[in-house]
Amino acid sequence: MKILVTGAGGQLGHDVVSHCQLLGDDVTGVSRAELDVTQRDHVHAVISSLRPDAVINCAAWTAVDACESNREYAFTANALSVRWLREATARSASHLVTISTDYVFDGTKIEPYDEWDTPNPQSIYGASKLAGEREAGPDAAIVRTSWVCGEHGSNMVATVLKLINEHDQLSFVDDQRGCPTFTADLAPALRQLAVERRAGIHHLTNSRPVSWFEFVQEIVSAAGRDPSMVLPIPTSDLDPPRPAPRPMNSVLDNAVWRVAGLEPLRDHLEPLRELVASLHGNN
After folding, report:
1. What are the phi and psi torsion angles at 230 (to 5°)?
2. Contacts of 20 (CB under 8 A, 6+ apart)
3. Which candidate, 183, 171, 98, 168, places its Cα nearest to that of 133?
4. CATH of domain 2-154+179-207+250-267
5. In the chain, what is the straight-line distance between the N-terminal and C-terminal CA atoms, in Å?
């Protein structure tokens, strides 16, 4: 496969590039400095020059709270960029795989969200990513994921490992639930969608939902510390409050993946332990 990976400077893009290289693909990974997906002419020039079999789009503006005060750039980075990619991949007959988010839902459903539930984003970030889904067109693979963590980026695991060396006690919300997802497991699934040229919306997360409080306890435990140092608080007690509302239920049912008979991503505790061991080894 000849694959172009946008956003290769981020944690997910980095692991997608590494996985594709491991399997012998002719892969080109481009960071924002090398390909700014908000620039239509640049997108078309790069894709028409490379003519890849597939484009895996990991580029996005994921600063959820910052999006609230810059709606135009959020929609440019997360929606209009996908329009440019759709145009360019259509001309080169490349298959487009693009990443979306649990934030397209309002979080009020009791059960996990499947791919046919109606989105209702409550934040600018969520609205911009939903617009990006619509810009991708019917032939692209759209992957909604959540709580992404990897070795090569800023995420909850890296943050908690830093905090436990600076504080005796941590407080995290226990009324927001979701599925932690690890780039080491997500990256192979994205490549599979690209290779098999699958279309439509797919929810892809590691299995077993938890609250942020429970997830942080697991991180602390994996690091060999006492998880009782983590205390639960309600979202209403966050100080200062976050500008962007978070969905209280972010749990995504990977229904399409499961019904298609594809192998589910692992229980998140397994890749969590691997990531903690790796990050500790790098320090």
Report:
1. -100, 125
2. 1, 3, 5, 27, 191
3. 98
4. 3.40.50.720
5. 35
Distance CA 84, CA 47 (A): 10
Quickly list H helices, the chain: 11-22, 40-50, 64-67, 71-75, 81-92, 124-136, 156-163, 183-195, 212-222, 255-259, 269-282
Please tell me what DSSP assigns to residue 82: H
Q: For 17-74, how does the pLDDT look when each residue is reduced to its tens digit (9 = 90+)?
A: 999 999 999 999 999 999 999 999 999 999 999 999 999 999 999 999 999 999 999 9
CA distance linking residue 104 with residue 250, whole number of Å: 10
Dihedral sign for Cα atoms in the order 172, 70, 204, 255: positive
CA-CA distance, 276 to 158, in Å (whole number)? 8
Catalytic residues: 125
Domain residue ranges of the chain, discontinuous segments joined by +: 2-154+179-207+250-267
pTM equals 0.96
Report yes or no: 117 and 261 within 8 Å, Cβ to Cβ.
no
CA–CA separation, 12 and 148 (whole Å): 8
